[in-house]
C-alpha cells in the first residue's frame, strides 16, 4: 500500500476517533446529569439514581466512553431508553430506508449535475449554458424540503400518481416489495438531488472549462480529434478531480438533507428515529445515530481521497 | 448601454448610461446580478423592519371563523387553518431569518476569521491543526449540531443560531487562511515585516484589510445558507418556536393542510427562495465588483 493511502487511512481513523469523542462529550458530558435530562425537571432523586444504575450512567466518563466505543467495535450497542432495544437493531431497521435513499439521491445528483455541467461548458456563453446556469442559480436557492413539498403538491395532490408519503417496505409480506419501495423513494431522492445537482453543475462547468484551456487539449484538437471526442476522452477524467472534492463535501449536506426530507415524506428512516428520540429525550439513540451519520460523511470523504489517487496517479506519486 | 436622449432635470438632453461612471455604486448599479440581488435583499430587510412596527394583523392572532380564507383585499395571501393572516406571518417571519442570518454569520465570521488569520500568521503545526479541525468540522452539518443541541437543551432560535454559527466557523477559517496566505507573500507585507512590525500588527494592518472583500462576499453567501438552514430547523421543530412566526414552521403547518389549501405551502417557500436568491446574486455580484480579475476570468 502506498504512503498516500497509509496517510489517508491514519487520518480517517483519527477523524473517526475525534468525532466519537466530540459526540460523547456533547451528549454525555455537556448535559451534566444525563439521567436528569432523560427524566426531566420533575424527576425524583430516587428515579434518577435508578436510571443511572440501570444504564451505567453513574460510572466515570472515561469508562463509559471506552465501553461505548468498544461495544460499537464489537457490534454491541447500548439499550435505547424509550424502546428498550439495542440501538443497533433500531438503526439497522431504519437504515433500510435511509441508505437506499442517500445512494439514490447521490446517483441522481451525479447524473444530473455532471450532465448539466458538461452540457453548459460545451456550449459556453450560448443559450444552453445561460439556461443551465440560471436554473442552477435557482436550484441553489431552493430549500430541498420545500421542493419536496412542491413535488408532493404536483404528483400526489394534483396528478394523484403517488401517495403523499409513507414507505410500503421492501418485503412483499408487508404489502410492499422492491419495486414499491423503490417508487416510494423516487420523489424524496429527486428532491434531495436537484439542489445538490445545481451546485455540482456549476463546479463541473467551471472545471471542464478550465481543463479545456490546457495545452494537451489543444494538442489533441490539433491532432484532428473532434471537440466531442476530446471532451469525452481527455477533458472529463481530468475535470473530475475537483468535482470529486465537491461531491465528498456535498455528501454531508445530502445526509442532513435526507434527515429533513424523510420528515416531509414520512419515511421511517434515521431522520424520524432521531426526531422521535429527541422528543423522548433518548440520548443514547441520538448519540449513536449522530455518530453514524458523521461516520458516513467521513467514510465517503475517505473514499473520495482514495479515488483521487485512482483518477490522478500524480497525487500518489507526489506523496510517496 | 445605449439609449435615446431624454430631457434632464435642467432641460439639458442627457443620454442614459452615456456619462462615465467610475464609482463603486455606479458600477454596482450597472451590474445586473448585483442590482437584482441587492433589490431582493433590500426587500427582505424592509419586510423585517416594517414588521417590527406594523403588520396587517397580529401574526399569531387566531381567528377560527375566518380560517383557510382565499387571498382577498382583507387577507392578501389568505389565512391558515387557525385563521392567522399569512401576509402578516410572512412579514414577521423575515425577522427570524434575518436574526439567525446575522448572528450565525457573526459567530462564524468572528471565530473562523480569527482562526484562519492565526493559521496563516503562525503557519507550521498551528496552521495544520486549525485546518484539520476545519476539515473535521465539515462532517458536522448545522442540522446534526442542532440535533445534538436540541436533544440536551430546549430547541429554539438560540439553538439554531449556535448550530448554524458553529457550521460557519470552518467555512470562514478556510477562506480566511487561503486568502491570507496569498497576502503574506506580497512585497508590501514583507516590507512591513522588515520595517519591524510583528506578525499580529502585520495581520491587523495589512492582511485583514486586504482580504476584507473576500470575507464580505463569503458572509453574504453564508447569510443565504443560514436562511435555508433556519427554515429547515424550524420546519423540523428545532428552530424558531411559537408564537414567533418562521417561514420554515409555516411550511410545516401548511403541509398538514396540503389537500385543502395547497397554496399555503407555496408562499413561505417563495419567500425563502427570493431571500436566498437575492443574497446569492448579491454575493456573486460583489465578487465580480470587488475582484475585477475574477470577473474577467468568469
Helix vs. strand class of chain A: mainly alpha
Rg of chain A, Cα atoms, Å:
24 Å
Helix and strand run of chain A: HHHHHHHHHHHHH
Strand proportion of chain A: under 5%
Give me the oligomer status: heterodimer
Describe what you observe in this structure.
The complex is a heterodimer of chains A (320) and B (298). Chain A is an all-alpha fold and 320 residues long. Helices cover 78% and strands 0% of the residues of chain A. The radius of gyration of chain A is 24 Å and the shape is globular. Chain B has 11 helices and 2 strands; from the N terminus they run ββααααααααααα. In chain B, strands 1-2 form a two-stranded antiparallel sheet. In chain B, helix 2 (32-53) packs across helix 3. Chain B is elongated and about 75 Å long. Mean pLDDT of chain B is 85; it is low at 1-21. The interface between A and B is large, with 47 and 41 residues.
Short description:
The complex is a heterodimer of chains A (320) and B (298). Chain A is mainly alpha-helical.
Features:
heterodimer, A: 320 residues, B: 298 residues, mainly alpha, 68% helix
What is the element layout, followed by pairings?
The complex is a heterodimer of chains A (320) and B (298).
Chain A: H1 3-29, H2 34-39, H3 45-54, H4 61-74, H5 87-122, H6 127-141, H7 144-158, H8 178-212, H9 215-222, H10 227-264, H11 270-279, H12 283-311, H13 313-319
Helix pairs in contact in A: 1-12, 5-6, 5-8, 5-10, 6-8, 7-8, 7-10, 8-10, 9-10, 10-12, 11-12, 12-13
Chain B: E1 6-7, E2 13-14, H1 24-30, H2 32-53, H3 86-122, H4 124-137, H5 142-152, H6 157-184, H7 187-194, H8 199-236, H9 247-255, H10 267-290, H11 292-297
Antiparallel strand pairs in B: 1-2
Amino acid at each position: 500500500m502506498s504512503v498516500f493511502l497509509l496517510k489517508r487511512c491514519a487520518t480517517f481513523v483519527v477523524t473517526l476517533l475525534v468525532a466519537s469523542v466530540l459526540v460523547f462529550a456533547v451528549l454525555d458530558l455537556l448535559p451534566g446529569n444525563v439521567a436528569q435530562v432523560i427524566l426531566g425537571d420533575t424527576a425524583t432523586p430516587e428515579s434518577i439514581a435508578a436510571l443511572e444504575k440501570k444504564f451505567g450512567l453513574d460510572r466515570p466518563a472515561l469508562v463509559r466512553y471506552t465501553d461505548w466505543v468498544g461495544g460499537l467495535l464489537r457490534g454491541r450497542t447500548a439499550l435505547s431508553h424509550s424502546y428498550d432495544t439495542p440501538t443497533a437493531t433500531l438503526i439497522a431497521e431504519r437504515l433500510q430506508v435511509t441508505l437506499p435513499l442517500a445512494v439514490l439521491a447521490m446517483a441522481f445528483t451525479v447524473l444530473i449535475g455532471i450532465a448539466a455541467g458538461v452540457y453548459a461548458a460545451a456550449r459556453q456563453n450560448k443559450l444552453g449554458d445561460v439556461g443551465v446556469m440560471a436554473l442552477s442559480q435557482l436550484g441553489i436557492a431552493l430549500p430541498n424540503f420545500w421542493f419536496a413539498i412542491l413535488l408532493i403538491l404536483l404528483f400526489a395532490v394534483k396528478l394523484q400518481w403517488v401517495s403523499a408519503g409513507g414507505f410500503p417496505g421492501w418485503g412483499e409480506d408487508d404489502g410492499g416489495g422492491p419495486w414499491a419501495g423503490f417508487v416510494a423513494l423516487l420523489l424524496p431522492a429527486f428532491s434531495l438531488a436537484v439542489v445538490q445537482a445545481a451546485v455540482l453543475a456549476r463546479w463541473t462547468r467551471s472545471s471542464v472549462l478550465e481543463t479545456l484551456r490546457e495545452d494537451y487539449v489543444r494538442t489533441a484538437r490539433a491532432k484532428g480529434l473532434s471537440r466531442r471526442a476530446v471532451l469525452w476522452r481527455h477533458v472529463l477524467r481530468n475535470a473530475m478531480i475537483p468535482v470529486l472534492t465537491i461531491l465528498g463535501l456535498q455528501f454531508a449536506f445530502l445526509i442532513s438533507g435526507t434527515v429533513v426530507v424523510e420528515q416531509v415524506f414520512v419515511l421511517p428512516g434515521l431522520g424520524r428515529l432521531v426526531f422521535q428520540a429527541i422528543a423522548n429525550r433518548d440520548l443514547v439513540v441520538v448519540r449513536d445515530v449522530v455518530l453514524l451519520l458523521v461516520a458516513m460523511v467521513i467514510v465517503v470523504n475517505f473514499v473520495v481521497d482514495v479515488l483521487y489517487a485512482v483518477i490522478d496517479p500524480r497525487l500518489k506519486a507526489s506523496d510517496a | 448601454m445605449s439609449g435615446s436622449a431624454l430631457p434632464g432635470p435642467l432641460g439639458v438632453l442627457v443620454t442614459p448610461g452615456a456619462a462615465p461612471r467610475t464609482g463603486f455604486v455606479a458600477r454596482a448599479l450597472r451590474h445586473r446580478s448585483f442590482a437584482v440581488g441587492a433589490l431582493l435583499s433590500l426587500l427582505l430587510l424592509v419586510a423585517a423592519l416594517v414588521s417590527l412596527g406594523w403588520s396587517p394583523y397580529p401574526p399569531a392572532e387566531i381567528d377560527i371563523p375566518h380560517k383557510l380564507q382565499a387571498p382577498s383585499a382583507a387577507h392578501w395571501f389568505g389565512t391558515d387553518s387557525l385563521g392567522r393572516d399569512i401576509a402578516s406571518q410572512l412579514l414577521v417571519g423575515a425577522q427570524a431569518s434575518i436574526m439567525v442570518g446575522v448572528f450565525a454569520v457573526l459567530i462564524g465570521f468572528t471565530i473562523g476569521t480569527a482562526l484562519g488569520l492565526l493559521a496563516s500568521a503562525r503557519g507550521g503545526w498551528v496552521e495544520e491543526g486549525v485546518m484539520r479541525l476545519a476539515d473535521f468540522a465539515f462532517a458536522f452539518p448545522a442540522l446534526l449540531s442542532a440535533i445534538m443541541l436540541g436533544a440536551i437543551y430546549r430547541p429554539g432560535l438560540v439553538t439554531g443560531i449556535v448550530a448554524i454559527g458553529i457550521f460557519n466557523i470552518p467555512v470562514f477559517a478556510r477562506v480566511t487562511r487561503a486568502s491570507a496566505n496569498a497576502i503574506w507573500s506580497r512585497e508590501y507585507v514583507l516590507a512591513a515585516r522588515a520595517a519591524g512590525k510583528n506578525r499580529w500588527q502585520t495581520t491587523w494592518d495589512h492582511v485583514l484589510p486586504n482580504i476584507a472583500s473576500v470575507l464580505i462576499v463569503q458572509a453574504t453567501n453564508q447569510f443565504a445558507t443560514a436562511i435555508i438552514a433556519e427554515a429547515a430547523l424550524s420546519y423540523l421543530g428545532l428552530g424558531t418556536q411559537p408564537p414567533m412566526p418562521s417561514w420554515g414552521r409555516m411550511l410545516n403547518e401548511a403541509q398538514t393542510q396540503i389537500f385543502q389549501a395547497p397554496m399555503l405551502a407555496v408562499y413561505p417557500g417563495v419567500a425563502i427562495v427570493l431571500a436566498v436568491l437575492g443574497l446569492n446574486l448579491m454575493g456573486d455580484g460583489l465578487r465580480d465588483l470587488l475582484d475585477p480579475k475574477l470577473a474577467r476570468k468568469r
